[in-house]
Structures are given as C-alpha cells and as structure tokens.
Amino acid sequence: MRETGASSAGPASGDATDPPGNGATGSAGIKELLGRLAASVASAADTRVQIAALEFAEERDRARDRLVLVLVIAIAATFALLAANTLVVALLWDRLGWITLALLTLLWGAVAALAGRQLAIRSRREQTPFSATLAEFGRDRAWLMERFGKRRS
Fold first, then answer.
1. Domain membership flag for residue 96
2. DSSP string, the chain
3. Domain count, the chain
4. 13: in domain
C-alpha cells in the first residue's frame, strides 16, 4: 500500500490520470514540471540573448569599419577634386607645374577607387544582421509547433 492510501491496482499518485485534488504528490509533479519548463524557457531565452549580443557586437564592428572606409573615400575624393580643380588652373598656365598636380589627382583618385572597391566587396559578403538569432528563433518555433501544435487535434 502507498502512503496516500491508493490501492496498488489504482493509478499511481501524481499520474496524469489522477483526478484533481487527489493527493499532494500530483501537484508536486506539476510544480516540478512547471519549474523545469520555466528553467528551459529561461535557458533558451538566455542563449538567444547571448547570441543577439554577440551579433550586435559584430554589427557594431562592421559599422565602424564601414565608417572608416567611407571617411577615407570622402577625404580621398575631396583631395582628388581639389587636385583636379588645381590641375585645370595649372593647365591654363604655360608651365610644367601641371604634371605634379596630375600625379596628385591620379594618386588620390586611386585611393578613393580602392577604398570604394573594398567597401563594395565587404558589403556583398556580409550576412543580414542578426541572422543567427533569427534562425534560432525559427528553429525554436518549429520545435514548439512540432511538439505542441499537433496535440490540439
């Protein structure tokens, strides 16, 4: 015989077939189940938050690198424009000073072109922001739908 007074032929105390209010063991089992469920949800949420934080840090670093390249492009393009304007002025003179200005124009134009090319290459290679986090949430949703969605019918 069990301590709760149930016969050995009857359902075990705490079983899912127990009627409500039939012993403290059933509610203890539910409390334990709810506790485990809460712990699992908290663990999954913690993992997702950590992934999101990691992706945010990566996005911040990429944004900083992109900003540096944009600044290099802007400065180089400004120098190229200044050198090109100076070249036009120098070409109007009858001296050889324009060769130096032409080389400066080519130099700064090449720097701007290389930085722009590097920016375009990096932009094409990057993934969408927070793609790993969104993928994890999608897997969680699919698992929950598979696990609990089918039991409604």
1. yes
2. --TT---TTSPPTT-TTSPTTS-HHHHHHHHHHHHHHHHHHHHHHHHHHHHHHHHHHHHHHHHHHHHHHHHHHHHHHHHHHHHHHHHHHHHHSSSSHHHHHHHHHHHHHHHHHHHHHHHHHHHHHPPPTTHHHHHHHHHHHHHHIIIIIGGG-
3. 1
4. no
The structure tokens 């663990």 sit at 43
Tokens of 58: 């990566």
Look at residue 133 and tell me if it is in a domain: yes
Q: Give residue 94's domain range.
A: 24-139
* The one-letter amino acid at 29: G
Answering whether pTM is above 0.70, one says no
Q: What is the pLDDT along the chain (153 residues), one digit of tens a residue?
A: 444 444 444 444 444 454 555 555 667 788 888 888 888 888 888 888 888 888 888 889 999 999 999 999 999 999 898 888 777 677 766 666 667 777 778 888 999 999 999 999 988 887 777 777 778 878 877 877 777 765 544
The answer to whether position 112 is within a domain reads yes
